[in-house]
Amino acid sequence: MDRADVVIVGAGHGGAQCAIALRQNGFTGSIAMIGRESEPPYERPPLSKEYFAREKTFDRLYIRPPQFWGEKQIELHLGIAVDAVDPAAKVLTLSDGSQFGYCQLVWATGGDPRKLTCPGADLSGVHAVRTREDCDRLMGEINGGVNNIVVIGGGYIGLEAAAVLTTLGCKVTLLEALPRVLARVAGPELSAFYEKEHRDHGVDLRTGVGVEELVGEGRVSGVKLVDGTVIPADAVIVGIGIVAAVEPLVAAGATGGNGVAVDSQCRTSLPDIFAIGDCAAFACDWAGGTTMRVESVQNANDQASCVAKAICGDAQPYHAFPWFWSNQYDLKLQTAGLSVGYDATVLRGDPAARAFSVIYLKQGRMIALDCVNMVKDYVQGRKLVEAGALPDPAKLADAAVPLKELMPA
Length: 409
What we know:
The protein is an alpha/beta fold. It is built from 9 helices and 26 strands.
């Protein structure tokens, strides 16, 4: 049976960064990384952006050159999944029936695209945008003449895909069940701005609509809404979130549900097992201690570094500041902090000028901001969020006042 001192399950951002950080922190033991995909670790955000738009070739997405892992004595076991965990014996059962032993385990599996549950969800031509294989399959269909595409889901993945597809000349319809896009992560000001942008670029964007079924014989040919309307579709992209990939851990007894629960050092309830990234639910300091999963590259990388330090004997509580970004058309959105529980917003700048910020307040305290083509606001504003500032809303709204001038003494 193969075994390693540290086994990392998941070869995405978090898993790769954990292996890198272990070596950077002086860990000399054996490290093995097990990943379901056949590719060495690569960046995922460009899949729905530069790679999908054919602006970057795949070789430019590798987190490290493929030879790096061997040079650092990090074993890659790719194209294989973990089906079961025996925490008492410290043994993993893999999808090929083999077993793999560990001394310490890092679970960094991320999540799987949430699937539609309506009739027709399993038709050919229905796609997710999560892996290279997903994108290559869809790109191949577009190259073959697929042009009329329905995107289901008005979150960042759906909006980014719609932007790229429109740029490629496809006819795009975007459907969101909630009354506005980005409703779960942003205020109405940002939602309204992006809805207008997409419509101005030719996207048929519809909010407050439900999908009843996907229609077609063998391959999808349309999307039927709950009101009976049928929207023709050569292909469908489903971007309605992810489901944390934690089943083997929970089956082994780990506390969890929507993700696996971890403590302030990313330890699960099982001995010598950590969890990081999209699949880890933790009490977030930047959301008032709310237990949540944070789906971002920043969170995956910073939790990976936290775990690497703990394994190397320098355990510290996780307190990394959350930040995010999204590129759509020529718009660069940068987000600092988490707007969970905000009770007021301040609009700074003019959305019509396509450069503005939305600032989120909770009991007067600045907890987050979204900046569209406003890099200075982002750089200066995140320091205000980190400082827990209580700025004057009137000054916040005055774009002529640099945010750095509102820093508390």
